[in-house]
């Protein structure tokens, strides 16, 4: 399934904003560091996270895209740093990412680790410097730190590693465990995007609640679809080695529930996401399309 | 030289606050992650950075230590995360830190990398959640991100790696290059501590300028003293392998200037730091003592 036009449009604004943001940092102390950060940050991708933030913002009535763009770039910085560390030899040991050499293959391990560290700092720098009310900035910075740290994404990554060890030692991994991994590993940031978009648009309670529920459903949907994609798509489509999850004994929805039941679960999650959009009325149409797309890219 | 009593007193408050802060995060998703974060965060040390922040705060008339404590913990989280990544096999490859196994030796590389990532997020979480005016919080978060990211500490680490490569390939490393490394690698955070302490105390312009100048001088003093310590102290005193800089072909003040000239440079930096304290009057006495201590622990 082709990405919806509005997602591609958000993505092209995000690409342009990322490039110009990186240019303003060329006075940076070490060129190779900025090169490595840019290499990974500008490696393409559908920019789903910034798209969710910008579209939630728009759906709640926001119309100053350039003003909220730094938050969209920040989430991409966090996501990119996590991919760089994830790809390292001591973690997933991946040589390819979106069809290109991973950061530590293109540069070296030390540079990759430091580029990721700098991207994390850059995310907080971008939000702290936004042209929005300082109370709101603090709120976003606080929730971004929670969503990306030990109680969010990083916590989920450790759970994921533990489940892999469990699976490797023949221990059965439960569905609840897999859900807990993804609620943290991918769900927390995806949820942050939707909530942050609503907050930046000064959404009313009804809109905020809608975006928050939508974000939670999409968070799980995204991962179920990803797991399905890993077993149904070719390496060409993925831009990385297909079947890698099974090879690494990753506990996935598919490995636990089977393909058929995983597809049913994904449909349920999509329906929850669609339902959450109802209070947004006509403005929620594109978020609905995004939920369809997130699911169907994986089938 | 023994640490001044007031530094030990700040350190004991910091230790207690770190412990209780970590306890409130025990609902964290993965125990081993919190264990690894705590292991490195509570590994002792003189807590010079929190000490600088708390003492700058006090010297500028601040008297609500518990209110500013999260900023002191935050700087220790940033410092600790940088040490964990620095110690990794692909970086300095250190097995010992303060006489104990480094984080990746005690746990494993993947856990160490993620614990450090979570500590960086925790630093921003702590400041974002402080009970101080949100404008000030944003200002501190922004300057902390700058001081720790590609234009600060991480930038300096990359410069350091480059100088090592230069030295290994027989290229002469200049004094200016070494200064540039340390202005970023250690100086930026030390400077942040002093400036943040002053800002949190609502310092007037004269006090803020004094703390800022003091922080810059102490930033360099700290590193010159460290380089001197590496060649003059035993491994016992260091809690890590002495002479490691020379072994790793690190470009240090001592390797470029020699021991005698490095000591003279350290004396000059100390004098600049002492002079910067003059506008603080009697309240600056302990910051002066801290400058003496930072230098003399290294001789």
From TrEMBL, chains A, B:
Q: Does the keyword Transferase apply?
A: yes
Transcription regulation listed as a keyword: no
Q: Which GO terms describe its biological process?
A: terpenoid biosynthetic process
Alphabetic keyword roster? Isoprene biosynthesis, Magnesium, Metal-binding, Transferase
Q: What is its EC number?
A: 2.5.1.1, 2.5.1.10, 2.5.1.29
Q: Which Pfam families does this UniProt record tie to the protein?
A: polyprenyl_synt
Annotated Gene Ontology cellular components are: cytoplasm
Q: What class of enzyme is it?
A: transferase
Q: One GO MF term, please?
A: metal ion binding
What InterPro entries has UniProt attached to this entry?
Isoprenoid_synthase_dom_sf, Polyprenyl_synt, Polyprenyl_synt_CS, Prenyl_diphosphate_synthase
Q: Which cofactor does it need?
A: Mg(2+)
Quote the PROSITE patterns the UniProt record gives. POLYPRENYL_SYNTHASE_1 (PS00723), POLYPRENYL_SYNTHASE_2 (PS00444)
The similarity comment for this entry is: Belongs to the FPP/GGPP synthase family.
NCBIfam families in UniProt = FPPsyn
What is the protein name for this chain? Geranylgeranyl diphosphate synthase, type II
